[in-house]
Amino acid sequence: MPKKRQALVEFEDVLGACNAVNYAADNQIYIAGHPAFVNYSTSQKISRPGDSDDSRSVNSVLLFTILNPIYSITTDVLYTICNPCGPVQRIVIFRKNGVQAMVEFDSVQSAQ
């Protein structure tokens, strides 16, 4: 929802969502220097194109989207960021629409 300047965040459980809303009620949250407002959604789950209703696809590849990078994004930079989480198998960077990268870990557990 980038053109609406809104975002959806799905928590593991309702308690996590409650904690986020309660924290934001007492503390101003800023994103990129702009105040952010945190509210409950009317939806219980974020629908993603191609997802089945009963489960999300789990794999060892993460997609990174870097908006307005200050520094050059290279495979070395991404490796340095990701490797502490688990062994990185490969990294691919796309620069067509901004900067996106796919990082493949050795296992689903490392990617999580």
Automatic annotation (TrEMBL):
State the organism's lineage: Eukaryota, Metazoa, Chordata, Craniata, Vertebrata
Q: Which SUPFAM superfamilies match?
A: RNA-binding domain, RBD (SSF54928)
Alphabetized InterPro entries for the sequence: Nucleotide-bd_a/b_plait_sf, RBD_domain_sf, RRM_dom
What protein am I looking at? Heterogeneous nuclear ribonucleoprotein L
Positions of the RRM domain: 71-112
Gene3D superfamilies assigned to the protein according to its UniProt record, in alphabetical order: 3.30.70.330
Q: Name one GO molecular function term.
A: RNA binding
